[in-house]
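To the structural biology subgroup,

Please find below the input and predicted structure for Glycine cleavage system H protein, which we are adding to the shared reference set this quarter. The sequence is reproduced verbatim from the submission form. If anyone notices a discrepancy with their own records, reply to this email rather than editing the shared folder directly, so we keep one authoritative version.
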Amino acid sequence: MTMEFPDDLKYLDSHEYVRLDGEIATIGISAFAVDQLGDIVFLELPDVNDALEKGETFGNVESVKAVEELKAPVSGTVVERNDAIVEAPEELADDPYGEGWLLKVRIGDESDLDDALSADEYRALVEGE
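Predicted structure (tokenized):
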């Protein structure tokens, strides 16, 4: 399977990604993470209006192999949650960078992403594993 690492995203070494559009950050998990997890069976996400704190756990993704904590790449307030993916988490594998997004967050400070990885840096990280 060829891994995609879209250049317009920022990545964490814990495999979350962020697509920034003004002050709204769309957060999801990378195709690499989805592939490593295998069959995803459950997703736990915060509610709209919940606050995220950069670096803190904001939910879980559960597969037949493991339960992984989701780490917030930015601090901010949840403005939208992808309920369709919560109801059908197995669909994350189909389109992790499109329909498989998890949250949209209004961020407080864009500098939260200063230490995030570029697509090339993230690719080097996961291909080196």
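Summary notes: The chain has one domain: 7-126. Residues 7 and 119 are 5 Å apart (CA to CA).

Regards,
Lab coordination
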